[in-house]
């Protein structure tokens, strides 16, 4: 039992209480966001945004740029999605929930390689 305790609890021994609470909140907001996504509920966006903003703050504290950029991208996409999903035309949603299609693949690769380029540039610039 001691090894299990050490694995889960001792790793947080150097963390502040605030950081532990923030990580706990980010975890649960992420879980709740996934549940809302499964139910196709618009609350997927605010819960996901809260999760990613908290995560960006925690990643900033330990200087993990890649994680910050990915979460920033999630936040921006969530803001756009929230706005887009909220729009109505003739009392009906302007955008319907749809699945990822093959046509979306090039856009996804472009975003991925853009994040790689920004991260690589940041790491190779002289400090």
Structure keywords:
mainly alpha; 5 helices; globular; two-stranded antiparallel sheet; 127 residues
Order of helices and strands: HHHHEEH
Shape: globular
Number of helices: 5
Order of strands, main sheet, comes to 1-2
Return the average pLDDT rounded to an integer: 89
Secondary structure tally: strands = 2
Helix percentage range: over 70%
Q: What does the oligomeric state look like here?
A: single chain
The major pleated sheet works out as: 2 strands, antiparallel
| Percentage beta strand | under 5%
- List the uncertain runs: none
**Cα radius of gyration in angstroms:** 18 Å
Q: What gap, in angstroms, lies between the N and C termini? A: 45 Å
Which class do the helix and strand fractions yield?
A: mainly alpha
Structural features, described:
With 127 residues, the protein is mainly alpha-helical. Helices cover 70% and strands 3% of the residues. The chain contains five helices and two strands; from the N terminus they run ααααββα. It has helices spanning 2-8, 17-38, 44-61, 65-86, 105-124; strands at 88-89, 92-93. It has a two-stranded antiparallel sheet with strand order 1-2. α2 packs antiparallel against α3 (44-61). The N and C termini lie far apart (45 Å). The mean pLDDT is 89.
